[in-house]
Amino acid sequence: MALTVALTIFLVMGLLGLIAYFLGVGGVELIVFVTVLAGLFVGLQYAVAPLLLSKLCRLRDPRSSERWLVEDVKMLAEQAGVPPPEVKVARDPTPNAFVFGWSRSRAFLVVHEGLLDMLDRDEVRAVIGHELGHVRHRDFVILTLLSVIPVIAYFILRVTPFVGWEGGDQDEGFVWLLLIGLIALVVYLASQLLILALSRCREYYADAHSAQLTGRPQDLINALSKISYGMTYYQRRTASTPGALRAFYIIDPAESKELQARDERLRYYMERERRRSRWVEPFLTHPPTYKRIAFLKKLAREMGVFLE
Known about the structure:
Layout: H1 2-22, H2 27-56, E1 59-60, H3 67-80, E2 86-90, E3 97-103, E4 106-112, H4 113-118, H5 121-137, H6 139-146, H7 148-159, H8 170-214, H9 217-229, H10 253-276, H11 289-303
Parallel strand pairs: 2-4
Antiparallel strand pairs: 1-2, 3-4
Helix pairs in contact: 1-2, 1-7, 1-8, 2-6, 3-5, 5-8, 5-9, 7-8, 8-9, 8-11, 9-11
């Protein structure tokens, strides 16, 4: 995470330094120019982004209709050792949840109505544990601040063709402007890819946080399977009286066949996603679901957790 942040900041500082040199600013003035300009952009992003997000999302207070959600967030936040974020429900049918805000103590957790409709309470808890992982690691703050860097590069890229050259040598000016534009394009693409890679990395950490916090990685696997594949993988075991012959089997034959069918169905969806995401993964904010499920299964084995 530190390496990605350092590389991203280095890219944009180098670009701004080149522009400062192009403008004839040197020495201490160059450092001040780069620092002030970058600081203004980052400060504006940090101050305004959470406000804009809260205005754009149709949020409501869940304390009257989903009191259990607020209580679960508070309980899990206490277990995680983080300040409980303010909980909001978005009037949106898509199954999603996210956190935003200014700091760990001034964070908001937004849960979509679609997620509450699709998942059961244990699975919602698993998603909450994932989002609290982002709060604990301050991922939303760091990614919000870093996201301004591609914007700076894109802005420079767009305005470069309209910048006039006031010097005497027009050919030299054209070369300088072309060089700045090309470097701005490279910085824009590279910083975008770095931030996306960082985002995917932090998703794995948040998944691990959920599994360790709840002690039930299967609930997050179920939530991911439902959201991505529309299926429930780990079924709740219910007390039932088996038939006379079925009681003599170590594994209920009917249950074994059902589990095998679910295994085959999950493998089919995961393999299909693997083929489709092979080339697009570098451009995704989240890892493919099949990788997250494989990671959670590996983590469950390391934790010594029996997956139902």
